[in-house]
Amino acid sequence: MEIRYSVCPHDCPDTCSLKVEIDKGKIVKVAGDPSHPITKGVICEKVRAYPKRIYNPSRILYPMRRVGEKGGGKFEKISWATAVGEIVKRWKDLSRLYGPESILPYSYGGTEGVINHSSMDRRLFNKIGATMLKRTICSTAGTLGYKLAYGDSIGINPMDTINSKLIIFWGINALETNMHQAIFADNARKNGAKIIAIDVHRNKTARWADDFYLILPGSDGALALGLAHIILRDDLADKTFLEKYSYGFKEFYIRAMEYPPERVADLTGIPKERIEGLAKVYAETKPSLIRIGNGLQHHNNGGMNTWLISLLPALTGAWQDKGGGAIKSNSGYFPLNNNALERPDLIENSPRTVNMVQLGKAL
């Protein structure tokens, strides 16, 4: 039996370290690496079942060309040379007849990796002069909102969250999409921490949490302003921290005062008494962590929702405590040279750009 180590390729914040068992050149088991400080031997069932996926007889291992009418479900095997040749001819014909912008690449983060996800394809389509795709479907709005507050996608170290005494999972079903953060939270709970979930439906994480706030879709920013209103009204903010590290506080204060609990209750569907209680437990419990998810940003006001939530740890000075602050994404700690990867210098003209969430409109 041979043991090799790998990493999960999926678009997931956990980026699990994998321990792979190989017998006579065939993968027989995929498990979590027990020596990894975050994975600790625990992985999701989807990746654990990878051997079945890899060796499944239905897996497509070669190019298939449709035979007959579209929708008929009939395909024939062709060689790679034939497939590439047909694609190249089709692209050349389209470029000659309609221009290279008639070609639109459409992809996102099914399989991660610098080469697979965000380099070779970008270079190819840049060189061709194809229509450019703005990949915004997942986290772009929230990322911009968070950066508006802190300048980059940086939060606290997930391993420090075992020190947290209050953990709020806001708009994230962590048990199913960020399981190792949930494990850290569970360990923190064993040390006395309280876990709160805020979401638009009673998912697995909501049922697991100590308390759950069911919120109307798109009203997350209003709830954040309502919490800020109470914290400021009751003199629970960390004034020293704000004076030293914040900018624009006076303007924020004026806006927060426009969102008393009564108004926020109407906007969010959460009773004002519950809003009052959440604000006080958040302001008074230290260290406190907010794990901000992606779901709440999938609205017209999505970026603003994330921005307003991310301001709450600054309001209470939570960043000063180990295990306090927020996590949206920590990708800012691991920057890539996107120009070197994607080679925008290969673009000769100024091709149009299509936002992927408006694909139907563009077509």
List the helices and strands and how they pair.
Layout: E1 2-7, E2 17-23, E3 26-32, H1 45-48, H2 50-54, E4 64-66, E5 75-77, H3 80-98, H4 114-118, H5 120-128, E6 132-134, H6 140-150, E7 166-170, H7 174-177, H8 179-190, E8 194-199, H9 204-208, E9 211-214, H10 220-233, H11 239-245, H12 249-256, H13 261-268, H14 272-284, E10 288-292, H15 302-316, E11 325-327, H16 338-342, E12 353-355, H17 359-362
Parallel strand pairs: 6-12, 7-8, 7-10, 8-9, 10-11
Antiparallel strand pairs: 1-2, 2-3, 4-5
Helix pairs in contact: 6-15, 10-13, 10-14, 10-15, 13-14
Give a brief description:
By secondary structure, the protein is α/β, with parallel strands linked by helices.
Descriptive notes:
The protein is of the alpha/beta class. The chain has four domains: 2-54, Phosphorylase Kinase, domain 1 (2-Layer Sandwich), CATH 3.30.200; 61-98, no CATH class; 100-139 and 337-363, no CATH class; 141-328, Dimethylsulfoxide Reductase, domain 2, CATH 3.40.228. Helices cover 41% and strands 15% of the residues. The strands form four sheets. It has a five-stranded parallel sheet. Helix 6 (140-150) runs parallel beside helix 15 (302-316), helix 10 (220-233) runs antiparallel to helix 13 (261-268) and helix 10 (220-233) crosses helix 14 (272-284). The protein is globular, with a radius of gyration of 24 Å. The N and C termini lie far apart (52 Å). The model has no long low-confidence stretch (mean pLDDT 95).
